[in-house]
Structures are given as C-alpha cells and as structure tokens.
Write a structure and sequence with these properties.
The structure is a single chain. By secondary structure, the chain is an all-alpha fold. It has one domain. About 80% of the residues lie in helices and about 0% in strands. Helix 1 runs antiparallel to helix 2 and helix 1 runs antiparallel to helix 5. The radius of gyration is 18 Å and the shape is globular.
C-alpha cells in the first residue's frame, strides 16, 4: 500500500496536473479554470484522507525520527529557510508597492495566464485550492514520504529529508527545470521546519502562504490595471 501511495503522489497526481494544464491551454475560459480547480481540490482531499488512513495521526505533531546535524549543516538548512521566507515576502511586497515591479511581474505572468485565475470567482476557488494543496502535499511528502523512506527503505533521517525534497521537486516537473529546483529547495526548508518544530502545522502554514502568493500577486496586477 505504501509503494502504491508513493506512486500516486509522485507520478499520478503530477501527471493529472500536466493534463489539466494542457486542457486549460486549449480552453482558457474562467468556467474551465474553476472546473479544473474543483477537480484538483477533490483529488488532493482524497490524497490527504488516504494518508490519514495509512499513517498514525499523532505523527502530525511528533515526527518519530529526526537527526542531529553539525552546526555548519544546520546553518545551511536555516539559510535555505531564510531564503524561502525572503522570496515569499519581499517580491510580494515590492509587487504591491512598486508600479515598475508590478509591470515586470505582469509581463512574466502573461505566459501563465491560462492556469492562473483572472475573475473574482476564479480567485476564490484558487484560494481554496491553495489551502487544500498546502495541507495535502505536506501530508504526502513531509509526513508520509519521509516516514516511507525511513521505515520501508531504512534510510537515515537526513537522507530521507533529501529524498523527499527531490521527489517534491520532481512532482512539479510540468513547471520546468528551474521551478523544479526551486521547489526542491522549498521542500528542504519545509522538511527542516517540520523536524525542528515537531509539528506539521508549521510547514503547512508556510506552504499555504507560498501558494496564496499567486492569488495576492494576481490581485495586485488586476488592481494596477484598473487604475
């Protein structure tokens, strides 16, 4: 069962996301976007519910295995966390405050407009999707996959952290190589937050905030276009 679930998390769900992206490239209406968002919400809720049936729920707040890293390694890991926090907050603030930054971001978003929401209805449903995927992906990767590599593969905790982060990056293959690398680094930060805080809620909150950045950026761009 564990192997099957990893297959679903790493291959089937990302492949479904790729199919949905290609579908939206052909049909760019808001109705189609909302439909795809709703389908993804259902898929990720199902994945999260399945995870809770397989793993003990108390592990959400008490990771059974961590590791004591040398100071230099901890410094690197915390630097990755700090970098991800910086990339979450600073570009978003600049987008809201700087017209030049908004124009640059709007230009970058042109190539992504087929998947990103444009209407108020789309933004609301996408926001729900941001919450659901933030919770579900943390349960699948930081919680389930981490324990999977520890228990089923017998990997040391630090190797399991790296393996989960690589899988997390690979699962976003449809977004390109650069985005895969960025997501893998985000995975390292989220895994380290889980192990050091002892609660999956910390990476879940961070992940949801990262997902909502798309919504807040879209609102900033729309606001500037209105004015």
């Amino acid at each position: 069962m564990n192997h099957i679930f990893i297959l679903v998390a790493v291959f089937i769900l990302p492949f479904a996301g790729l199919l949905f992206t290609r579908y939206l490239a052909r049909d760019k209406t808001d109705k189609s976007k909302v439909r795809v968002y709703c389908l993804l919400i259902v898929l990720y809720i199902g994945a999260a519910a399945t995870t809770m049936q397989i793993r003990p729920v108390d592990e959400l707040f008490h990771p059974p295995h961590s590791f004591d890293a040398p100071l230099i390694v901890k410094s690197v890991l915390w630097s990755i966390v700090a970098y991800q926090a910086f990339m979450l907050v600073v570009p978003l603030l600049l987008t809201w405050r700087s017209p030049r930054m908004r124009a640059a971001v709007a230009k970058e978003y042109v190539g992504k407009r087929e998947t990103f929401p444009k209407t108020t209805r789309g933004l609301v449903v996408f926001s729900i999707l941001a919450f659901v995927t933030g919770i579900a992906e943390e349960m699948m990767y930081r919680w389930f996959a981490y324990q999977y590599f520890l228990a089923d593969w017998g990997l040391p905790a630090w190797v399991a952290l790296i393996a989960v982060s690589i899988l997390f990056g690979l699962a976003h293959f449809q977004q390109g190589v650069e985005r895969m690398i960025d997501t893998a680094l985000l995975g390292v930060a989220l895994s380290w937050l889980y192990l050091t805080s002892g609660s999956l809620m910390v990476p879940i909150i961070f992940h949801i905030a990262y997902n909502l950045k798309v919504v807040l950026t879209t609102i900033a761009i729309k606001k500037s276009q209105v004015h």
